[in-house]
Amino acid sequence: MDKKGKATLSAMPYIKGNKKRIRALIISLSMFVVLSYGVSYILACCMEPFEQACSEPYRDMLLTSPHVVIDEYETVDEWSELATKEVLKCAAEIEKIPGITGTLLFREGRVRMKSVVGETSLPCFLMDNKEDVKTLMDYKDAKLVSGRLPEAPGEILVDEKLAKNMGDKVLEYMSDRYYIVGQCESDYYLALGMALSSENDINLIVFHPDDGKDYGQMIKDTGIEIYYVMDYESQHKGVMEDVGSLLSVERLIQLSCGIMLAICLLVVLSLHIMDRHEEWCLMNSIGFSSGEIYSMALRELLFCFVMALGIGVVFSAAEGIAFDKLLCAPIGVHIDLFRKSTIPVVIGVMTAIYGCAQIPLFVNIRKVCTVDAIE
Asked: How far apart are CA 215 and CA 100, in angstroms?
């Protein structure tokens, strides 16, 4: 009864009396949520670890190599010594640029890193002294968790995620004279250590705040000639060029699944609505208007969609945890369980399906008549 004492139609009697049909509809809808989340998570397993490893470390630093010319030298060791002095002079000039907070000289090695699908290589920062090793660790908030810090040439410290990721093959791209002496904990796939005397690839780490400024261009504007700049923008662009197309694949799969689900559900809903024609005519005969019957049917559908969304979220969370335990954790990669990019897609498709369901519902409501008029 409403406030005026008039009987009202509730959606719950039909829902309680037709549990099997309602359950089938809810499960069908919730499977779309689970499928959308699964597609998003699996593709993220291919993309996010590379972005975390290849671009995120450069939000507050960049790598570069000043161009130096050494005309007279007799041995490679002499060239390295003279070149190091010239690079340090350039570093002193770079540190004068407003915003730049420091520099470190390093020699570059490469370590292996893989995702659930695909593999890449990352810089291994090889320092000339253990003080610089500690400086970089402090800057990246890395904490020693096992073993010890590098102290002698050839000794390497790796992030524990990277150690789990590649195991004994992590240093496969480097000289066999390098070996791991400890593991650290950091937000990145960090690898650093002490350079062998044979390393003559001289580079600079340039520290700066994460404020969006183009510090690479600011270095060039000083007149210092550099070979390259590896910063967040360039690294992020590179990752997107390599795996960014997977975002389009994700959207295409979700859209295709949504369209197929919408077609199937519209067929099911049409049959469901047609089966209830006589029931609605009886309601009309005892005094309920077409508008009241239509409102009741809408609430029934809304109940199914809300329940499907809730159940889909629960099963998606379980799905994400299972993927993390079985796919990601064993290789030391972390994927965010909360897939915020999937939320608008799921809500958009569910809303579209709910809207499309109004078509057969509206058509059949217009055919509702009293029992006397059915014949």
From this structure: 8
Structure tokens at 185: 């904990």
Give me the residues paired with residue 123 across strands: 110
Torsion region of 314: left, alpha or beta (phi above 0 gives left; psi -120 to 50 gives alpha): alpha
Residues 260-277: tens digit of each pLDDT: 766 776 676 666 677 777
Of 325, 307, 327, give the one whose Cα is nearest residue 315.
Answer: 307
CA angle 241, 221, 100 (to 5 degrees): 80
Q: What is the pLDDT of residue 105?
A: 95
Q: For residue 152, give every residue at least 6 positions away whose Cβ sits within 8 Å of its Cβ, in sequence order, or none.
A: 194
Q: What is the dihedral angle through the alpha carbons of 321, 327, 333, 339, rounded to the nearest 10 degrees?
A: -40
pLDDT of residue 354: 81
Closest CA to 125 of 240, 230, 232, 237: 230
Cα–Cα distance measured from residue 327 to residue 334, given in angstroms and rounded to the nearest whole number: 10
Give the number of other Cβ atoms within 10 Å of residue 156's Cβ: 23
* Residue 48 backbone dihedrals phi, psi, to 5 degrees: -60, -40
The amino acid present at 297, given as its one-letter code, is: A
- Amino acid at position 68, single letter: V
Radius of gyration of the chain (CA): 31
* Euclidean distance between CA atoms 61 and 235, whole angstroms: 12
Return the closest-CA partner of residue 46 out of 242, 236, 222.
242
- Cβ atoms of 137 and 187 closer than 8 Å: no
CA distance linking residue 105 with residue 132, whole number of Å: 8
User: How many other CB atoms are found less than 10 A from the CB of residue 358?
Assistant: 15
What residue has token string 């210092």?
224
